[in-house]
What we know:
The chain is mostly helical. The chain folds into two domains: 2-34; 66-238, MetI-like (MetI-like fold). The chain has helices spanning 2-34, 36-39, 57-64, 66-99, 105-117, 120-131, 140-163, 169-176, 181-210, 213-218, 226-236, 241-271. It is globular, with a radius of gyration of 24 Å.
Amino acid sequence: MANAAIRTRSERFWTAALWTTSILVFVFLLAPILAIVPLSFSSGQFLTYPIPGFSLRWYADFFTSDKWLHSLWNSLVVGVCATLLATALGTVASLGLVRANFRGKGLIMGLLLSPMIVPLVITAVGFYFFFAPLGLTASYTGLIIAHTALAAPFVVVTVTATLQGFDMNLARASASLGANPTTTFFKVILPLIAPGVASGALFAFATSFDEVVVVLFVAGPEQRTLPREMFSGIRENISPTITAVATILILFSICLLVALELLRRRNARMRGIT
């Protein structure tokens, strides 16, 4: 009994220590982000603490500024187009890699995931020198292609992980009943892996929407995205409007995380995991 009591006290101590450490690390990581939010409601002209007063003027400036709204529109257009392409290409690539066995499969997977590994600056320089002779720099087409290449690996990873638990006998049964590969994919495979595909699409959109390095090298003045506008604003003239934009992006990121968690739970329920 004494040993059990000592063990229980020891377990309680280490559990409390673990929770305390986790909370401190969590606060340390979030403090710089949360410090931006109050500044977005400041009535002052400069980013200073304490805040002289509360105002929504910087949010009004964002939603009434042609410059900021144009950059937001560019980010949405490029993000949606890149997400659609990356989701389609990544899903097809994942199906091919999971269902087929051939030499060099690991090499192809490594090549598909290389944009996640290679430093982004190197990738951006490569895009620039590859697109320049083709006339794709300073164009929406070039920017969408570049963001598709950056976002596709996230789709490949999530869909491949989802397909690991997929029973391929279902696809074989569909084929044995006379369904062609297209019908099998849309009627059998896609509904079961939909949560993984949707998760990959969300990751792809977040990657494209938040990207700034490739935009600096590939995009022109008309393709200025929201992150690039923020980057330029920080370098040229620090305006409190940037904090309002940052706060909006924080809320947007929280919404994406909530959506990913809901998709994860739905995927777990479909697999019968409790």
